[in-house]
Amino acid sequence: MADDHQKRIAIIGAGISGLLACKYALSKGFHPTVFEARSSIGGVWRKTLSTTRLQSPKSVYQFSDFPWPDSVTAEFPSQDEVLGYIQAYAAHFGLAKHIKFNTKVLSINYSGAAEDETAAGDVSSSDGKWEVEFSSGTESLAGSEVFEADFVVLCVGKYSGVPNIPEFAPGKEPEAFQGRVIHSMEYTDLKPEQCKDLVEGKRVAVVGFQKHALDIAMECSAINGKENPCKLLYRTEHWNVPDYLPWGIPLPKLYFTRFAELLVHKPGEGLLLSFLATVLSPIRWAMSKFVETDIKHKHRLAKYGMVPKQSFLQELSTCLISTVPEKFYDRVEEGSIVLKKAPSFNFCQEGIEIDQIQQPVIEADVVIFATGFRGEKKLQDIFRSKRFGEIVVGSPNAVVPLYRECLPPRIPQLAVLGFSESISNLFSSEIRSRWLSELLDGKFKLPAIKEMEEEAAKWDEYFKRYGGEFYRRSCVGALHIWHNDQLCRDMGWKPKRKNGLWAELFEPYGPMDYVCS
């Protein structure tokens, strides 16, 4: 292009990733436009349950150039505090004027070279354009408009939009149930008084065992107590942590250091690193057991039959670690929350049928699915091109194939931010946004398509090796430093950010280590 800085960049979503992509695009002199379907910024933090708190310590969940205010003292801030922090960041850098609120993107379509001739590597191409079809306010599809962009950044997230609902036997779907069935997405959108009206005095069953399920169960148990205990149905036990201090040692000192990553086989590692990961595997096993024993002790997991079969490392490697709400197991002890293992279940008129000898039917008035979202489906459906939609999600037997967890190699002039997770999604989204802005600014070139696909395949092998049955969750949780090193080398930055060998090996890495290039 005559002047690359005249590029029009369309950013879809004004959550954490969208705001960061906008901020760093502006820092390079580009012209970003952010499309946000809601009336405000914040993504999933815009509206959550009152009991929801940050899942990682605030020290690793902060902007590198905008620290938390002194007024926020909690290690795991509340929803209001997190949202306030995000809003303050957007105000500080003047991002709101670049956001089109109440604007829903209906589809994106690439016009230019034939699809089989395109590649993400040609980010400076002037031949192709993206057509972003959107509707504003209450306008219908008939009243939609088109925004032409040189580059598109998808920041649609994976924890909203398309609910993940289990499949059921014919005739035993939710329609067979005489009560009410909703997804946690709908529950979260309710006002507090509406939530209370929905569950008060009713038999409630919550399906799931991740953070949203635990928070909803806590709310229900607080309203109904032991008189109408909340039944929490789960398929798999998880190592949900009580805090980040296993046996008094900060968890980041165990797992967020270079030494911890020496214990894990890494994508693209050489013979020496492979040898070290193999030889040091007993330490890897011992560290995982060390954390597991702490969780078992504090939560009394054996007493409730809640000891997971998988290791803590496997859960960290798939970003399944979440903090348990305070006094959750006290509610289990008193009987206001009842845990029920249900690998599979169906609906009947009275409630839920599970495969158990005792009490095969869980009678209920309200069933709340806290079973997550279909992030791949949401990502796929935004493309008007069926082929691009299939390319972006890849094989059903692999993770979403993104080079550097950002770029689909065979889709031109497009990036995906915030889909691949880490120990702190803000942390990872920021450095990826910086990497993308440097790429668009011409500071480095991408390798050939085949090389990018091979690199993505190496990460897929890593995910499969350490993720087990959960491996399709794109997550660099146990290798975030290795991932950041790759991005730093691309940008021409120094990967090692600490002072001295001891600090480099044993001090945790966080956002403040990447303040300067």
TrEMBL record:
Keywords: FAD, Flavoprotein, Monooxygenase, NADP, Oxidoreductase. SUPFAM superfamilies: FAD/NAD(P)-binding domain. Its EC number is 1.-.-.-. The keyword NADP applies. It holds the Pfam family FMO-like. One of its GO terms (molecular function) is flavin adenine dinucleotide binding. Coiled coil: none annotated. Belongs to the FMO family. This is Flavin-containing monooxygenase. It comes from Linum tenue.
